[in-house]
Specification:
The chain is α+β, with helices and mostly antiparallel strands. 24% of the residues lie in helices and 41% in strands. The protein starts with 5 loop residues before the first strand and ends with a strand.
C-alpha cells in the first residue's frame, strides 16, 4: 500500500493573466536584489487544502464534487516577506473563505486528513529568500486584474530532477 501514496493538495490554478502578474512581481523582486528559490511559473497556485501523503485520489475528487462551488473572482492585494519567504496575498473574499470552510469540513467528514493551519489566501513567490540588502528598496505593488475562478484542481506533487513537479489529477468545475 505504501507505494501507492501520493502527495496531494487541492488548489486554485491561475490563468495566464494572473501568472503574468505574479511573475512580474517576482521579476521586480529579482531586480531589487532579492535572492532565493523562486517558485517556477508552472508551480504558482493557491493551496486550499494540503492533504499530503494519501493513497486514494478518487475519494478526494468525490469529496470535491460534493461541495458546491460557485464561480467567484480573486484579486491580488499585495506582496510581503514572511519569515524566509515572499507571499503574494489576495483581497478579502467571503466566497473563497466560505468555500474553503465547506471543503475542509467535507474532507473531515470523510476522514481525509489535511494540514489544519488557518487558511490564508496567498501564493508563495520565493522560498529561502534573502533580502537583507535593499529591503528598503522593494518595489511598490502594482495593481493587477482580478481572475475568475471557474474550478478547483486536485494536484499531485512529486520531486523532479529540477525541483517539485505539480500535476493536475482531478478537476471540479464551478456550477
Amino acid at each position: 500500500m505504501g507505494a501507492d501514496l501520493m502527495r496531494l493538495f487541492i488548489a486554485i490554478c491561475f490563468d495566464d493573466n494572473m501568472l503574468d502578474s505574479l511573475v512580474e512581481i517576482q521579476d521586480d523582486l529579482r531586480r531589487c536584489g532579492v535572492k532565493g528559490s523562486y517558485t517556477p511559473r508552472e508551480n504558482l497556485h493557491m493551496t486550499l487544502a494540503f492533504i499530503g501523503e494519501y493513497d486514494d485520489p478518487e475519494q478526494v475528487v468525490e469529496v470535491m464534487q460534493k461541495v458546491a462551488l460557485s464561480s467567484f473572482s480573486v484579486k491580488l492585494s499585495r506582496y510581503r516577506p514572511f519569515r524566509d519567504m515572499f507571499f503574494a496575498e489576495f483581497e478579502e473574499n467571503e466566497s473563497l473563505k466560505e468555500y474553503v470552510k465547506r471543503l475542509r469540513k467535507a474532507l473531515l467528514d470523510e476522514e481525509i486528513s489535511f494540514d489544519r493551519k488557518k487558511f490564508m489566501p496567498h501564493v508563495t513567490l520565493i522560498r529561502r529568500a534573502d533580502c537583507t540588502k535593499g529591503k528598503a528598496f522593494l518595489p511598490e505593488f502594482q495593481e493587477s486584474d482580478a481572475m475568475r475562478v471557474n474550478g478547483i484542481s486536485l494536484m499531485k506533487s512529486e520531486q523532479g530532477r529540477h525541483g517539485m513537479v505539480y500535476t493536475e489529477i482531478g478537476y471540479v468545475r464551478a456550477l
